[in-house]
Amino acid sequence: MTALRLSVENLLVSPNEAAFAEVIAEHVRVTTGRRASPSEVKSWQRSLPVLARDLADAGLHRVEMLVEYKLPLTSKRVDVVLAGVHPRTGEDSYVVVELKQWTRAEPSELGEHLVIVDGLPGGERLHPAEQVRRYCEYMCDFLGALQPNTVHGAAYLHNAMDLDIDGLPEQVRDERSRLFTKQRRGEFLRYLSERLSDKPGADAADRLLSSAVAPSKQLMTYAA
Q1: Nearest-CA neighbor of 165 among 99, 116, 119?
Q2: Tell me, what DSSP letter sits at residue 51?
Q3: pLDDT averaged per 10 residues, the chain (length 224)
Q4: Looking at the domain assignment, is residue 170 inside a domain?
Q5: Which domain of life is it from (predicted)?
Q6: pLDDT score for 222
Q7: Is 215 domain-assigned?
C-alpha cells in the first residue's frame, strides 16, 4: 500500500506541489486513524519536490514514485520507493529512499547505529543508512516478486553538508546503505542513473504493489 503514486514528470508538472502533502496526510488519517504531524507535512512539502527535481536532472522523468509505501505486516512506512527499469539488464529495479531534512547530526555513543540529530527532540535516532538497509532487507524477505539484486537503498540528507554529519558516512555498511548529502548531489544522481533508466516504471510499480507476501524469515525487530 502506498499513500501516493505518480511519475516524476507528473509531480513536477503539478501546479501545486504542496497539495500532494494534503493527499498523503489524508491517506495516513484514513488508514491509521491518526493525523499527520506538522513536521511530517512539512517534510512531504519540501523533500518530495527536491527528490523529483533530482530525478529529472538525472534524466529519469518516467520513474514511478511510491510515497509513504507501507511495509507488509508492519506499520512501518518507507518515505519513497522508486520503481523503474534497470538501464543494463532491462529488469525491474527499485531504489528505497529515506529523505531527511536534518542539517546536523553526529554518531551517538549509546549504540553502533544510533545518531544524535541537532534540534530534534526525543533522543537518539537510527542511522538513516541503517534504516534504509533494514527496509531493503525486509522487502526482499517478505515480497515474493523481489530479488535481492533488484532492490537498492539510499538515505538522502539534502539539507546537510559533509561536515555537518561528520562520522555518519563511516558507519555505512554496504550497497544498500548509501548515504548522500547535498554536497554529494552529483554522486546521488549517478547512483540513481546507474540503477534506473528513463523508461516507464509503472509496470515495475504494479508488480511491487501486487506482490504476494511470502515471508522467508521471522519478522525483523528494528527501530525507525
Answers
A1: 116
A2: H
A3: 90 76 85 82 87 96 96 92 98 97 87 83 86 93 90 94 86 80 96 97 97 68 42
A4: yes
A5: Bacteria
A6: 41
A7: no
Q: What is the pLDDT of residue 15?
A: 60
Instruction: Please give, one letter per residue, the 3-state secondary structure of 120-139.
Output: CCCCCEECHHHHHHHHHHHH
Closest CA to 99 of 159, 41, 140: 159
What's the confidence (pLDDT) of residue 65? Answer: 97
Bridge partners (DSSP) of residue 154 are 97, 178
Query: What pTM did the predictor assign?
Result: 0.90
**Interatomic CA distance for residues 92 and 90, integer angstroms:** 7
Question: DSSP of 59-85, one letter per residue?
Answer: T-TT-EEEEEEEPTTSS-EEEEEEEEE
Residue 222 lies in a domain: no
pLDDT at 221: 46
Determine the length of the chain. 224
Tell how far CA 43 is from the center of its chain: 13
Domain that holds residue 133: 2-209
Residues 6+ apart with CB under 8 A from 186: none
- Closest to 24 in 3D by CA, of 4, 48, 39, 50: 4
Q: How far apart are CA 24 and CA 26, in angstroms?
A: 5
The sheet carrying 105-107 orders its strands as: 105-107, 114-117, 125-126
pLDDT for 44: 84
- For the chain, how many structural domains are there in total? 1
Residue 24's CB is within 10 A of a number of other CB atoms, namely 22
d(CA 201, CA 1): 17
Asked if 109 and 223 touch (Cβ cutoff 8 Å), the reply is: no
